[in-house]
Amino acid sequence: MTVTEGQLQRPPAEVRYADELAALRAADDDPRPPGWRLSLRAARRFVVGDERAGISRKFVGHVSLVERALVTLATNRGLMLVGEPGTAKSLLSELIAAAVSGDSALTVQGGAATTEDQIKYSWNYALLVSEGPSARSLVPAPMLRGMAEGRIVRFEEITRCPLEVQDCLLSLLSERVIAVPELDGPQGMVFARQGFNVIATANTRDRGVNEMSAALKRRFNFETVFPIPDFDTELALVEAEATALLQQSGVTAPPRRDVLEVLVGTFRELRGPAERGERMATVMSTAEAVSVAHAVGVRGWFLRGEAGTAADVVASLAGTAAKDSPEDLARLRRFLEQEVPRRKGGQWRALHDARHLLAD
Amino acid sequence: MSSAVFLGVRHHSPACARLVARAIATLRPAYVLVEGPADMNGRLDELLLEHRLPIAVFSHYRDASRVATSWAPLCDYSPEWIALREGRAAGAEVRFIDLPAWHPAFTQRAEGAANRYADAEARYAEATGRLCAHFSVDSVDALWDRLFEVTGPDDADALQARLDAYFDLVRGDAEADAGDRAREEYMASWVSAAVAHAAGRPVLVVTGGFHTPALRSLAQRGDPVRAMVPGLRAGLQREGSAAPREGAGPEDRAALQEAAQSEDPAAPQESVEPEGTPAPRKGAPPEDAPAAYGMETPWPRIPEPPEGALGGSFLVPYSFRQLDAFAGYQSGMPSPGYYQRLWEHGPRDAAQGLLRAVAERLRGRRVPVSTANLVAARGLAQGLALLRGHPYETRVDVLDGLAGALIADDLDRPLPWTTRGSLHAGAHPVVAEMVAACTGDAEGRLHPDTPLPPLVHDVTEQLARLGLADAEGGVTLDLADPSGLARSRVLHRLRVLGIPGFTRVSGPADGADPVFTERWEPDAGRGGREAVTAGGGREAALIEAGAYGARLDEAASVLLAERAEAAGRDAGPLAGLLFDAVLCGVGPLCAELLDRLAAQVGRIGALGPLGEVLASALGLWRHDRVFGAARGELLGGVVAGAVERVFWLAEGLHGGDGVDLGRLGALAAARDALLHAPDLLPLTREAAADAAARIARDPLAPADLRGAAFGLRRTLGGADDPAAVVRTLAPGILGDWLAGLFAVAREEVTGGAESLVDVLDDIVAALPEDGFLTGLPALRQAFAFFPPRERERIAERLLQRRGTRGSARALLRTTADPLQLARARALEENVARLLTRHGLRSTP
After folding, report:
1. Mean pLDDT of B293-318
2. What is the pLDDT of residue B261?
3. For residue A229, which residues of chain B lie inside 8 Å, CB to CB?
C-alpha cells in the first residue's frame, strides 16, 4: 500500500483496525466458513468489541443483530440492512466486510444513475476495439471481482437504483455465476468462489424496500438497524464524538454534560416513539445530534468564549429541524412549548426559555 | 449436627426445577421449605390435588385504607411446585415459609395487584447487564437460557455451582430493601425451626435465588448450618480441575466469577471457599436475631391480618397468557409454552416444536411460509446456536432464525425478545405470531375438590342479599334509588367479567343520557332459575374469573384494567371502558384502572375520538348524579390527560381542508374542561391561551381548527377582534374558519356591537358570484352552529343594515333548500357564460 493511514481522510476499516484484525486472526482457532478471513466468533468480537482482548467496540447496538447478520452471510442468502438514515448501517456493513473478507472496498454505490456496468463489468474500449473481447479488455466491477475472489460485496443504498438494475442481482445471487457472453470458453462464466456474498443497505426514508421486487427480497435476509436504544450509550457517544470534533475546530472548552443531556433527550423525543405522535421528516439521528452538539460548542466558544448553552441548542436545532420542512419546525416548536415545561431540570427550563430563538 | 441446604432458584425455570427434584431425591430431606405464603400451610393438601396447571395461589387483602391482591403462579416446571410435589412424595414435610401476601413487607414496591414471583429481577439489572455485556447477549432471558436452561449433557453439580455463583453475584450488587430483609428474617426463622425439628436430618430450602445468599448467612449466624450439601460442594471445589464436560460449563462459571471480580475485586468469593463463614453481605440484616433455637423451638407464628382487615389466599386457575411477561406480567420467565416443551421433552424438541408452532400459526393466518423459508430459518437458528456456543438452539436462536428468514420488511421497533418488555400493539404480524407461539395457550383447571375461589362465594352472597338470586322474570332497576343502583353495579360487574346470567336490555347509554331505569333479562336459552343460581355455566365462569380478584368489584376493576392495557392507542374502546368503570361503581381498585385509562388517553392519536373521550369523561364529572362520579377525583386524571393531549395533537395538526366536526368537538371539549374544571388540569389557563394563539396563527393549520383555536383564545380572555381576522381570510376558507370559531365561541363573538356580522355581511356582499357560490355551503355550515333564535336575530340585523323591512323568520325559511337555489343559480350562470362565449346571447 502506497499511502499511509496518516494521509487519508478516512481510511477504510481494514486499515483503521489493521492491528485488531491481525490480532484476532492470530488468536482465532474457531472454525471459519470457507473463504472467510475470520471465524464468526472473531468477526463478532471485531464488530461488538471485547475489552479483555483489547478489541474496541465499533458498533453500538444489539449484539444479536450482528450475530444474525454474520450467520446470514455464511448462508446462501444476502444480507439487507434497512433502517433510518444515520443508524450506522454503512458502518456496520463496512466493518463486517472488513472482518469477513479483510476488504471493505468492493462497494457499489446505488443511485438513480447506477447501471449494470457499474455492478458487473464493463470494457476498456481502447483494448476492446484493438484486441476484441478478452479477459484483458474486461474491466471487472465490484460484483464480478467479489465473485471471482470470493469476497463480500457491499451494495449501498440499493433501493435508490432503478428496479431493473436491482433485478440484475437476481441470477447472480441465486445461480452464483455471472455470464460474460462476449468471452468464449471457460472465461465466459465467472463462478462465485466461497466467501462471496452481498451486504446491501437501504434507507427507509428513501424509496423503501416495499418497492423491491419480491424475487429479490426473497434472496436477502432483512435486518432492521435501530437508533441507539439506550440513552446513556447515546449520550456517551455524542459526547465523545462532539468533543473530538470541537477539538478539531479549535474549541478547547469541552461540551457541558447537562446541555448534552438536554440535546440528546430532545433528539430522542423527536425521533419519536410512535405514541408521542407523528415523527419528524428530518432525520433525528445520532450523527445529527453530534453535528448539533458541535455547532453548539462552536457558537458558545466563538461568540462568547464558553461551552455553549441550552439557548445555543435551540438556535442550532432550528437549522437542523427546519432543513427539510417547516412542518418539522412546527413540531419542534410544539415540543419546546408543550413538552419541555413538563420536564424537570435547569437546562430543560433554559431550553424552554430560549424557545423564542426558533425563527418563525 | 443439623443441616439446611439452600437452593436458590429462578421462578419458572425448568433447569432449577430439575435441580430441586434432584436435591430431594439425593437428600431425602425431613423438611422442604418453599418460598410462598405461609398462611397457605394449612391447606397444602388442597394445593397438591390433581390440578391441571398453571394455577396460582391468589392472595388478597383489604382494610380501611388499602386493597392489595397478588398471585403466585405455579406451572408444571415451577421449582416451587416440584419442591412441594416431590417433597411430599419423598415423605418430607413441606411448608411455605414466606410472609403472607398482605404483609406490609410486600407493599413497598407492589402495586394494588402484584405477582409474588415477579421478585427482584428489576433490581439486579445492573449486575445482569454487566453479565450480558460479558457474554455478548442482549437480554437476561437469553443469558439465562445460555447459562442454565439449554446446556449440554451437563452434570448437575456444575449447573448448581454456576447457579450459586450467579445468584451470589447478582445479590452482591442489588440493594435489598426493608421488605426483603423482613421477609428474609421471617424465612430464616422457619429454617431455624425446621432445622431444630429435623433433629439432624436435612432440610431443603427452596427460595428465589435473590434471597439465598442472605438466608444462608442468616442461618449460619444463628446455627452451625452446613451451607451446602457435600455433593454440591464438590462441584465448586473442583474448579479448574473439573472433569471435561460438554457445553460451556466451566468456562462460563469462570467467566461469571471473572465478571464479578473485574467490577469488584474486593467482593468475597464465598461460593468457592471450601468452608468457613462468609462475611455478611450488603443488605444483610443487623445482628439482632435470636442466637439459637433449641429442640423445643416453636414454629414461627403466621401473622394474622390486623384487626378489621380481611386477608387470605386461595387457589385459582391461571393461564400461560397471564403468565407470560410479554403479556404484561413481570413473571420470572417469558414464553411459558416454550419452557413447558423444554421441561417435557428437552431443548432439542422444544426448539423444533417452536419452529413448527410458528409455521403452523402463520399458515393458519394465511401468511405464506414456504419450505425454503423454513429451511433457511432452521439453518440460521443452527448457525446462531453454533456462533453463540449453544449445544442446541435456544428460544432466542429459533426466534432470531425465523425473524431473519421470514420478515422481509423494515421493522418499527426491535424484536421483542432482544429487550425485556411487552409486545407493542401494532407489532409486525409475523413477530406477533412468533411471540404467541412461545406463550402457548395452556389454561389451568382446578381439581373439582378444590374449595371454590372467594369470588364465587362473594357473588352468591351478593346476589342473594340483593334479591337477584331468583329473579326469574328479569329485573327493572331504578338507578335513582340506592338499592337499585347497588343491584345495577353488581349486574354490570358480572357483565364485565363475562359471567352468564343476565343481559342488559335497556338503560342509559352514556353519562349524559337522562334515563334512570335499567332493565335486565335472564339470558336467553336458559331457564331463568337455572341461570342465576349455581348453574354450571355461571359457576365455571366465576371460578375462572376468580383469578381476577376475591371480590366482585376488585375482579371487575382488574379485568377492565387489563382491557385498557390491551386497547393501546385505540381510542374506540376507551370511552366504553370509562363508562363501564363508572357503571361498575367506584371500587377500591378503580383508581388504578382510571390511572391507566388516563395514561392510555395520553396516547390517542386522533383528535376526533379523543374529543369524544374527553367530552364523555367531563360530562360524567360534571353532571353524573346517578352513578356518583360527579365531581369525584377519579375522573380528574382522565380529563387532565385528555386536555393535554388535545393541545398536543391540535398544535401538530397540519394540512387538510373542510370542516371536521370531530376536531372542533375536541377543542370545544377542551374549552369546557378549562372553564368548568380548571382545578383538575395541570395546564394553566395562560398556557392554554398561548397554545390556542399559536394554533390560531399557524398558517399550516386547517382553517376550521384555526378558527376554533381563535375562539378558544377569545373564550379564555383574549381580546383579539375576530372581525379583523375575518377581513384577512381568503374567501375559500372563510366558511371553514367561521365554523371553527362558532363551534367554540359563538356567544363570545356575536355579542356586543355585532361588528363581526357587519364585517361578514360586507365581505359576502363583495364576493364575486363564483366565489359566493363555492363558499356558500361552508358558510351555511358555520351558521348552523347558531340555534334558530339567534339565527333569526342575525337575519333581523342584516335586514336592518340594508334598510329593508321584512320578516327575519321568512328569510330563514325559504321555500326551497338554499343550496339547491345556489346550484340552480350556478347552472344559470354557466349557461349564460356558454351562450356568451358562442355569441348566442342576445344583448339586452
Report:
1. 75
2. 46
3. 414, 419
Chain B positions in Cβ-Cβ contact with residue A202 (cut-off 8 Å):
410
A62 contacts B649? CB cut-off 8 A:
no
Q: Which of B136, B371, B430, B697 to mutate to test the interface with A (most CBs of A within 10 A)?
A: B136
B137:A64 CB<8 A: yes
Chain B residues at the A interface, defined by Cβ less than 8 Å, are: 136-138, 142, 376, 379-380, 383-384, 386-388, 396, 400, 403-405, 407-415, 418-419, 426, 569, 603, 605, 644, 647-649, 651-652, 654, 687, 690-691, 694, 698, 700
What pLDDT does residue A277 have?
52
Nearest CA in chain B to A67: B384
Count helices and strands (H / E) in chain A.
Answer: 17, 9
Average pLDDT (A111-129) is 89
Mean pLDDT of chain B: 77
Set of chain A residues whose Cβ sits within 8 Å of the Cβ of B694: 333, 337
CB distance A41 to A53 below 8 Å: no
Q: Cβ distance B551 to B458 under 8 Å?
A: yes
* Pick from A93, A65, A222, A75: nearest CA to A155: A93
Q: Which residues of A touch B142 (CB under 8 A)?
A: 64
Determine the Cα–Cα distance for residues B810 and A223; give it in Å rounded to an integer: 70
Q: How many pairs of residues across A and B have Cβ atoms under 8 Å apart?
A: 107
pLDDT tens digits, A242-289: 888 888 888 888 888 888 998 998 888 887 654 455 667 777 888 888
Most distant CA atoms of chain B, gap in Å: 127
Using the beta-carbon criterion (under 8 Å), do B652 and A278 form an inter-chain contact?
yes
Q: Cis link prior to B54 (omega < 30° from 0)?
A: yes
**CA of B398 to nearest chain A CA: how many angstroms apart?**
11
Name which of B407, B413, B691 is nearest A338 (Cβ-Cβ). Answer: B691
**Model confidence pLDDT, tens digit, residues B11-28:** 888 889 999 999 999 989
Give Dmax (Cα) for chain A. 76
pTM reported for the whole predicted model: 0.76
> Cβ contacts (< 8 Å) between B403 and chain A: which residues?
68
Q: pLDDT tens-digit profile of B321-331?
A: 877 754 444 54
C-alpha B463/C-alpha B585 separation (Å) is 16
Q: Which amino acid is at B739?
A: A
Q: Tell me how crowded residue A344 is: count the other CB atoms within 10 A of its CB.
A: 6
Q: Which residue of A has its CA nearest to B643?
A: A338
Q: How confident is the model at residue B303 (pLDDT cuts 50, 70, 90)?
A: confident
Residue in chain A lying closest to B407 (CA) = A222
B-chain residues within 8 Å CB-CB of A209? 408-410
Name the nearest CA neighbour of B407 among A310, A7, A164, A72: A72
- Give the tens place of pLDDT for each residue, B233-268: 333 333 333 333 333 444 555 666 555 444 443 333
The CA distance from B391 to A299, in Å, is 56
Nearest to A68 among B400, B411, B698 (CB): B400
CA separation for the pair B618, B612 (Å, rounded)? 10
Contacts of B181 (CB under 8 A, 6+ apart): B214, B283, B285
Q: Which of A70, A330, A339 has the CB atom closest to B698's CB atom?
A: A330
Average of per-residue pLDDT across A42-70: 88
> Which grid cell is B350?
422444544
Question: Mind telling me how many Å the CA of A114 is from chain B's nearest CA?
Answer: 23
Say yes or no for a CB contact (<8 Å) between A48 and B136.
Answer: yes
Question: C-alpha cell of B436?
Answer: 404467541
Q: How far is CA B91 from the centre of its chain?
A: 42
Asked whether the beta carbons of residue A71 and residue B410 sit closer than 8 angstroms, the reply is: no
Whether the Cβ atoms of residue B69 and residue B111 lie closer than 8 Å to each other: no
- pLDDT tens for residues B184-205? 889 998 998 888 888 888 899 9
